[in-house]
Each structure stands twice: as C-alpha cells, then as structure tokens.
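FYI - complex with flavin-adenine dinucleotide, inputs then prediction.
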Amino acid sequence: MGVVGIEHVTVVVIGAGHAGLTASHFLSAASVDHIVLERGEVANSWRRERWDSLRLLTPNWLSRLPGHHYDGPDPDGYMTADEVAEFIARFAAASRADVRTGTNVTSVRPVDGGYRVTTSHGELSCRAVVIASGACNQPTVPQFADALPASIEQLTPFDYRGPSTLPDGGVLVVGASATGVQLADEIRRSGRAVTLSVGEHVRLPRTYRGRDVLWWMDASGVWDQRHDEVDDLTRARRLPSPQLVGTAQRRTLDLNALTAIGVETVGRWATLRDGRALFSGGLRNVFSLADLKLGRLLDTFDEWARTYGCDGEVDPPGRLEPTRAPSSPRLQLDLRSGEIRTIVWATGFRPEYGWLDVPVVDAKGQLRHDGGVVDSPGLYALGLPMMRRRKSTFIHGIEDDAREVIDHLTRYLAERRPS
Ligand SMILES: Cc1cc2nc3c(=O)[nH]c(=O)nc-3n(C[C@H](O)[C@H](O)[C@H](O)COP(=O)(O)OP(=O)(O)OC[C@H]3O[C@@H](n4cnc5c(N)ncnc54)[C@H](O)[C@@H]3O)c2cc1C
C-alpha cells in the first residue's frame, strides 16, 4: 500500500548523463515504469564541470548510444563539451526519457524490500534504484594541499577554465593522465613555465598504423575485455586515463611532445615538507614502465591485425621513440620561492555518495558491486570504471553494460513481484 504524499514508481534512476539515459532506454524497452532524477540539467557534467577547450579524446564515429550515433560531417573529429551535451540531449529527446531536472537526490534508504528516495522536491518510493550519478563528481586532491603556502593559487579541473584566468608566473601541474597532459600543454603554449609531476601513466600515440589508436582498441576487442576476465580487477579499475587529446591534426600528446615544447617533468609528488614539494625519484623507471606497456599493447594490435588478415589495409607496424627522461630531474621545489604561482591538481576524480544511506560504500568511497549489481537487493550502478568491461566509463561503452544490468534488474523485479 502506498504511503499518502509519497509518489510510487517501480524504478528510480539517479543522474541524467549518458549512463542514466541509457538505463532509461532499456527500462522503457522492457516496459518498466521509471523516472530519471537529475539535480541539474541533462548532461550536466558536460555543461558545468569541463574546461573551455576540452574536446573528447574519443573520435566522433565512436560516440554511439543505443539507436543514436554521430551523423555529422566530421566522423574522425572530436566533440567539444557543448557538442557532447547536445549529443546526449538529442538522445534523451529521441528516447523520450522521463527526466525530472533540478531535482537533487539527498537520500536513498532501504524500506520494506524497496527504497525510499528523498529529493529536493519530495519523496518517492520504489522497488529498485539505478545509481548513474557519475564516477567523476569530485576532483581528487591530496590532503597536504591544505598546508600549501597561501601565496599559491590552487585549481582543480572543475575550477580551471583556461590559461588566461591564471595568475602570471610558473605553474605546477600535478598528474600526467589525460587531464594533466592536456592542461600542461595548453598552459605551456600560453607562454608560462610549466612543471609537470608525473606518476604512473598510460602512454598512447594518437594514431597507430594510420588509424586512430582508439580504432585499434575497439576493433581488436581490447576494450571489450570483461571484468571477470582480468587478473587484477582492483588495479584495472584504478588505471589512469590515457595520455590523449582530440585535435584536428590528430596530435600525439605524450611526455616527449610536452618536453619538446619546454615542459619540465618531475616525479610523483610524494609529500610537502617545510613549504617544499618533494618528488619521488625513479622517473626513468616510471617512463620505462609506460613504454613497456605501450609496446605490449601495440604487439596485441599487430597480432590481431595478422590473425584477422587486415595487415594489408593498414600501414606497417612501428614503435615510438622511448620517453626521454631528464638527466637529473628535480627532487624538490620550494613553493615559497615565487617560482610557482599556481598548482593545478590533475590527480583524478572520485564519485560522491554522501546521499546514499545504504551501507554499500567501502572505506575508499567506492561502491561495493559485482558488475554493477550493488551489494543490496534492487540496487544497481552504471558508468563506473571497468564496471563490466574495459570500455565501461566511455560513452560508447555504456550500451552493453546497461543492457545486461537492466536485464538483471528486470529479472529481479519479476522474481520479487509484490503480492
Ligand atoms: C574530463 C573528462 C573527460 C572525459 N572524456 C571522455 C571522452 O573523451 N570520451 C568518453 O567516452 N568519455 C569521456 N569521459 C568519461 C565519461 O564519458 C564521462 O565521465 C561522463 O560524464 C560519464 O557519464 P555518466 O552518465 O556516467 O555520469 P555524468 O555525466 O557525471 O552524469 C551523472 C549525472 O548525475 C547527476 N547527479 C549526481 N548526483 C546526483 C544527485 N545526488 N541527485 C541528482 N542528480 C545527481 C549529475 O548532475 C550528472 O548529470 C570523460 C570524463 C571526464 C571527467
């Protein structure tokens, strides 16, 4: 029996990014009544949480959602954040998703074999919930950031818009994954001195044997590798994003490209002592490891091309020059000296589940789940790193995951039909 004043719906989906909207698509296909709750607008993260120059690192032809794909004039180009928001909004309209925008979910708790969802606009009860609230709600910043000298301006990728908004002076970019290398490149090109602190990273050329490197990831099936097939899932889920940028010239943006324009590389920022940033040694080893992994990946592509007989359709194999390590990288930097005026934290992102009143979040703030089936009956997730496949967090990766997760959900509903 429903409680007076509380709206009932069978499934609540939280978040109207591409993941929540794809969940809605499959729920509609299965005729399951549901609603999508979104605190901002459709595709909110692309409208509010990206810097000005950002373009997808995935090419347009790869941007596909169920029944919806890029059909513009530049399939090999890379969308701007505004274009991605448009792309997702068109998908929402075409799939007639029932989205309630401007509705912040402040609590989800288990009640009577289902869930009670409290929002900024009232309460709902439901039998199942799909958490599609994103894996990148907050930038990750190390704790010692609080102890930095006040003279240093600190920015995260959520605050950063472009180099013109930075104070004059040197910039330390921390982190050399997709975000870090893109921001280091853009800031260096604006004329500023840039130091880049580099930890474990994934090096990729933009093109390989004449094709976008992500064509190889897609065609060879590397991206389809499943969560239950990898040896170390925890590690696979923590893998940083690849050093890639989407430009018309299909430019490779690895560390060699950055040092060639004058970016100085230093090791991983280990700690802060007496106003000095202390960096790990062994930069050469970090570079060698990334080069080794890249070599192995390219070997996989070459082998796939040989096996599937497409060697003749692509350019001959080749290897990149090893990453050039500085002869004696600096191990510390005095942050009180005035050399560095700005620090940009490109140290990753994390999800935010403060509203989830179900004990399914581990000590590291990650959801406990098995391929998106969360550790509480009727609770599901989408869009998490390597959730069911290597491609899970990418736009084109959601369709396969969402189909399987919603299939599980509909079976769960059928097996627990209320009497
Ligand atoms: C900088 C960056 C660049 C990326 N580049 C690419 C790329 O090139 N290609 C690619 O395929 N992928 C890329 N990704 C990965 C991925 O496509 C994005 O992270 C994408 O936004 C994830 O979609 P999502 O639907 O899972 O989450 P989101 O897009 O984050 O959507 C979640 C939605 O949930 C809403 N929400 C959150 N909490 C609540 C709440 N409590 N109540 C109500 N609503 C809530 C948010 O407002 C948001 O709209 C990139 C990610 C980042 C961070």
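The longest helix spans residues 283-307. The pocket of flavin-adenine dinucleotide is lined by residues 14-20, 37-40, 44-45, 50, 56-58, 104-105, 132-134, 136-137, 179, 349, 355, 383, 393-395 (CB under 6 Å).
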